[in-house]
Structure formats: structure tokens, C-alpha cells
Fold this sequence. Notes:
CATH class: Alpha Beta
Shape: globular
Number of strands: 6
Largest sheet: 6 strands, mixed
Strand content: 15-25%
Radius of gyration: 15 Å
Number of domains: 1
CATH topology: Aminopeptidase
Structural class: alpha+beta
Helix content: 10-25%
Amino acid sequence: MTGSGPRRLVRLADGYELDDDPARVDVEAVFAYLHHESYWAKGRPRETMEALVAGAQRVVGLYAPDGALAGFSRTVTDGYLVAYLADVFVLPDHRGRGLGVELVRETVERGPYAHVRWLLNTADAHELYAKFGFDPPDEKLMERPARPDLRDPS
């Protein structure tokens, strides 16, 4: 289901690249960071991560000069009105170079969904997201926790 339209490859300083080709994403590297290091997806099963990457309308990988995954973002959207920015990260060894700014810029402002309303849940990096028009966090967003007891029995 991932993405539609032409793929984008953006070359950044120092040999880094942004690429929205889902086939290039190292799902194992994404899983390793999210499962073991992130505060929001710690413990997320590998199968779930694989399904989330495969089902996203757009994924953007940040790649180091050696081609290894250095960062990632995932977009879920209806394509017309709203998009949700998820699983954004830059690996620790690559931070401090402005790569997170470039990753979010490519995902939110330069992709096929630049025109829609974006939603984001995050406990950090508010200053980064403010650069792209995200409002300060507040109580506007309503959320219902997952309810495994309501899983469809079929």
C-alpha cells in the first residue's frame, strides 16, 4: 500500500540521502531502534513493525554515506484531508547535523501530502516540529487506547 506517485531521492550534505522508496527501508534497523530504544514503541513486535511499514502511504528513510539506515519516518493518511506523522527518529550517531530537520521537511513539506492537515503525538522535539507549523502540544487531540478485548473474532 505504500505511497503513490513518483519516488523522491534527495541528496543532503556529507553524503546523506533521503529516499521514500519503501523497498530500500531496512525494516530490521527500524524495528531494532523502535523496539529497543524509543520511548513510544518500546516492545513493539517485529511483525507489527513490518505491517506498519508495508501499510504506510509513505515512508522516508534517511541514509548515511555508507548506505545504512540513519533515520526514518512513516506517514499514514487518507490522502485528502489529514496525515499522521509516526515513528520519526534519527539514530544517535547521526544526530546534531540537522538531519532530523531535513527528514521532517521532506516528509511533511515536500512530499505528496504537503497540503493536508498533519497530526503528531510526541513527548519531545516540540521545537523541531514547530519549524513546520505544528502547534504547541495541547489537549485538542482525543485518543482512545487500544482495546484488544474488542478484536474482531472472525
